[in-house]
Amino acid sequence: MPMFQPSNGDGVVAAGFDGSGDGQVLDLETAVKDGVLGGIIGGGVIGAAVGEKLDLKKMIEELDLPEIPYVFICPISLEPMQDPVTLCTGQTYERSNILKWFNLGHYTCPTTMQELWDDSITPNRTLYHLIYTWFSQKSSLMKKRSEDVQGRVIELLETLKKAKGQARIQALKELKQVVAAHATARKTTVDEGGVSVISSLLGPFTSHAVGSEAIGILVNLELDSESKTNLMQPTKISLMVDMLNEGSVETKINCTRLMEKLMEEKEFHSESISSHRLLLGLMRLVKDKRHSNGILPGLSFLRSICLHKQVRSLIVSIGAISQLVELLPALEPDCLELALFILDTLSSLPEGKVVLKDCANTIPNMVRLLMRVSESCTQYALSILWSLCKLAPDECSSVAIEAGLAAKLLLVIQSGCNPVLKQRCAELLKLCSLNYTDTIFISKCKLTRTIQ
Length: 452
Prior knowledge:
- It is built from 24 helices and five strands.
- The chain is 60% helix and 3% strand.
- The strands form two sheets. The chain has a three-stranded antiparallel β-sheet. The protein has a two-stranded antiparallel sheet with strand order 1-2.
- It is mainly alpha-helical.
- The longest helix is centred in the N-terminal third of the chain and has 38 residues, at 125-162.
């Protein structure tokens, strides 16, 4: 067994130490020179902590950095260490983590699994200082950047109050980039009255160049009730609808996201969205195969619109049902759930049921989706099938059975899904069996061999 060589507690032991007594010990100067503190700038680490004393735990939580020097990470928790201590094997851990390890009755080094010949722990002061200094400088740098961003946002807002033409567009473009990249910029824009300034740029005579940049900013901000009410003015909604139909894909997506935000307001009136032009533009976005990134926000907005009963008939009238049914096989799971919710909601209308029944792929697609994606998708598909089979039992039941519905329903009944869903399956199975003799129905279920 190797002899333990005591340390003065001021060394940083590299994570690759093998327990043989010849581990690599790093002092402050070596650690900085060799890049262990990758990213430290500004004349070394010794003077970095001068000034206001910062709380290490708070800095770690606030910064939440994706990349941290490996020597700062506790091998047990894989989190940055706040109170590093070193064992006789040369391995360093967070104090609370290694003490928990000992309390569980382990007297080995968690990394090397060597038995400990000395159970004492030595505070690693140098490593603590390195960790503290690294996070302090990162924190100071981030604070400086935040102050710079804050100042730039204020300058841009002042520019927008005065500038016109191309200067206004350039200011909006820069503000949009800054707001998208920095939480500080978003907060500053709101705190400095930027929402009102930007909203005032939207109106009946606003160019799409200005409108698209302004909406790209507003969609990333926290809007209060007053701001949402202001944006719900008919002229502003009309501009958004125009850009939903004629703008770039990014602009169309931003328009849908912003209008969906406005719908969260209690004072929102469904008249604002009762527009053929809005719904047709939205369906074009959802069907655009060249730009699939518009499908999810488009369906999400359409789902929100469907919650307003007054608009549902209008959605049916523009042919949305048949278009959504044809899209189903190609949709991703998150989009699929939204599309099925919309179709299920529209199936509550008499005219919605008729359109669903007349669409050749409705029943085969619904049967195919049972037990395929999620319980919610199964629930929506089952609800639509129930509506159709109740509407035209003879016609729809036979089509559903030929598409394999009976076997799917039996699978759902035998699964661990909720009892209400199982009960609906049993009722639908009974409804579909009325047009068949027992023998024929059993053969349709593809269970003949099992029953025999």
